[in-house]
Amino acid sequence: MTTRREPTARQLRLAVELRRLRDAAGLSARQAAALLGVNAVQISHIEAGLSGVSEERLRRLASHYACTDGEFIDALVAMATDRTRGWWEEYRGLLPTSFLDLAELDHHATFLREVAILYVPGLLQTEDYARAVFSARVPELTHEELELRVHHRMRRQQIAIPYELVIHEAALRIRVSDRAATRAQLAKLLERSEADNVTVRVIPFDLDGFGGAASSMTHFGGPLPKLDTVVRDVPHGSAFIDSEAQLNAFRTRFRKVEAVSLDCKRSRDFINRLAQEL
After folding, report:
1. What is the pLDDT of residue 71?
2. Any idea what the CATH number is for the domain that residue 273 is in?
3. CA 206 to CA 168: how far, in whole Å?
């Protein structure tokens, strides 16, 4: 099988899960290879996401690892055998791989939950807002690079799965561009909040009990909770988080942040008042 040069985040996640199963079984890569009749290098490549794995081999590994969770194994098989080449592949080689990985996560997610403190999230940004955000990047992007990012971001917004957003007033008030662009951005938030699959809740500055100022995150639902992914922005790009302990921590954070936010109607009223002030 051809070795991949740059596995996607989804391929890496499958690799991580297979490595976790082997570790839980207490087997070395050499022992796992012997059970399949292959060499240890092939197991290492599979567990690094550099090589794929067939359904038959994956199920044999799961059996050798004494994994009895049939639903989990089926989900891993679906990841291993998926051959989707989505619209994001048009940007391969043109944008950083994290942009493509986010779009792929969108495509396969069962739900999205997001906490935004300082910026309106990309899935709800207007073109002008997104362009202003990318224009502030250091080092500065060329015009072509900037427009590619904006175009990609707009295409990511075509999602139909349940999407829950908790957004702080700071993100609504910070003008990444001018007053007109901010007004248009608030109008888009109001429009999208009326969609059946979108929930927008606001945390005002004067609301008591908010200690989650560092809680910005995007939570992508997997086919099973143990296959969820949380993405956080970091100085060098995006961090993809998938350990069970961390996932549970972020689930708890989201519940706490959501608990202190306004309900949907009061949130829409709040955003509308901010728009009228501009």
Report:
1. 98
2. 3.30.870
3. 11
Asked if 58 and 18 count as a contact pair (C-beta separation under 8 A), the reply is yes
pLDDT at 14 over 70: yes
Instruction: State which of 29, 47, 81 marks the end of a domain.
Output: 81
CA angle 28, 34, 36 (to 5 degrees): 110
Query: What is the tally of helices (H) and strands (E) in the chain?
Result: 12, 6
State how many domains the chain has: 2
CA separation, residue 138 to residues 152, 154, 216 (Å): 19, 22, 21
- For residue 59, what are its two tokens? 């199920």
Among 43, 58, 81, residue at a domain's last position: 81
Query: Which CATH number characterizes residue 17's domain?
Result: 1.10.260.40
Q: Give, for 231, the enclosing helix (H) or strand (E).
A: strand 229-234
Confidence (pLDDT) at 4? 76
> What is the value of pTM for the model shown?
0.93
* Cβ–Cβ < 8 Å for 25, 256: no
Q: How many CB atoms lie within 10 A of CB 119?
A: 18
- Measure the CA–CA gap between 219 and 48, rounded to whole angstroms: 24
> End-to-end alpha-carbon separation of the chain, Å?
59
Does 206 lie in the same domain as 72?
no
Residue with tokens 């908010």: 210
CA count, 13 A, side-chain hemisphere, 107: 18
Alpha carbon distance 84, 107 (integer Å) = 10
Domain co-membership, 58 together with 124 = no
Cβ atoms within 10 Å, residue 143 = 8
